[in-house]
Design goal:
By secondary structure, this protein is of the alpha/beta class. It has helices spanning 3-19, 41-49, 69-86, 101-104, 108-128, 144-153, 172-178, 203-215, 236-241; strands at residues 24-26, 30-31, 34-35, 53-58, 92-99, 134-139, 161-167, 188-193, 221-226. It has nine helices and nine strands. The strands form two sheets. It has a seven-stranded parallel β-sheet with strand order 1-4-5-6-7-8-9. A two-stranded antiparallel ribbon has the order 2-3. The longest helix has 21 residues, at 108-128.
Length: 257
């Protein structure tokens, strides 16, 4: 949308989020073939106006060749430019570097190449901006054992490198209960969650049950981000899980719950 329309939407939506007690927003500038939201100074300025922290996205394409030195160097240069542009903004809380990339990569060899590249990229973010942590987001716990082993075998410890899980199943309770056993020795953030409409009789009750599960492990779970704000987003799943219509009105009782 044009900046004037984006500003009006931010003003209304961020005000609603603030009154509801939300303290952070996160999303994607590009993901899975879709152009998503624009995260820039306008986003950050309006977030700051309403006391919202922003997890700033950095896109890592799942169809990229992470064995290609020219490709990975271009990502490093793009990251350095983005860090310099946004690192001093007061609304910035974390760098959201990559989302479900391992899930989409075509082979174990490419996943290994991505892992080597990712640690170097994360180190670049930390070197250029030591004041904000980096978070990688993946689907549930599918790759946690491998990620934990990789981090342990490729020191230093990197306590500023966090992990986010996107969870849409009844596995939420098990995954959060078992989190300390994975050996990552850091908190986790449920960076997406959503309930199926037929869980516990309706969608709102399902979301509420997931939220209370997340809060039940608050000694090491930083919080949770329900997916997603609006039904009119670019992905078909937005229509299923969106909380608001295009005018910022709740589509059912989920947001109120």
């Amino acid at each position: 949308l044009p900046d004037e329309e984006r500003a009006a939407s931010y003003d209304g939506d961020f005000s609603t989020l603030c009154r509801a007690g939300v303290n952070h927003i996160l999303g994607w500038d590009s993901d899975k073939g879709y152009e998503q939201d624009k995260f820039d100074e306008l986003t950050l300025d309006y977030a700051d106006k309403y006391g919202l922290g922003v997890v700033m996205p950095f896109y890592l394409p799942a169809d990229g060749n992470y064995r290609d030195a020219a490709f990975t160097q271009s990502l490093m240069e793009e990251a350095a430019a983005k860090i310099a542009r946004f690192k001093d903004h007061p609304a910035l809380r974390m760098w959201g570097v990559g989302n479900e990339v391992l899930t989409e990569l075509p082979s174990p060899g490419m996943r290994a190449a991505f892992g080597r590249f990712y640690l170097g990229l994360a180190d670049l973010f930390h070197a250029l901006d030591p004041d904000h942590p980096v978070i990688f987001r993946e689907a549930e716990d599918y790759f946690l054992e491998g990620i934990s082993n990789y981090l342990q075998n490729n020191g230093p410890d990197r306590p500023w490198l966090l992990y986010g899980m996107n969870i849409y199943t009844g596995e939420l309770e098990r995954i959060l209960r078992d989190w300390p056993s994975y050996g990552l020795n850091r908190p986790v953030f449920v960076t997406e969650f959503g309930a199926e409409p037929d869980w516990l009789f309706d969608r709102a009750t399902g979301y509420l049950a997931m939220w209370w599960t997340i809060r039940g492990y608050s000694n090491y779970v930083m919080g949770g981000a329900p997916y997603t704000w609006a039904v009119d987003g670019p992905e078909p799943t937005d229509l299923k899980w969106g909380l608001m219509d295009g005018e910022g009105r709740p589509v059912d009782d989920t947001f109120a719950f």
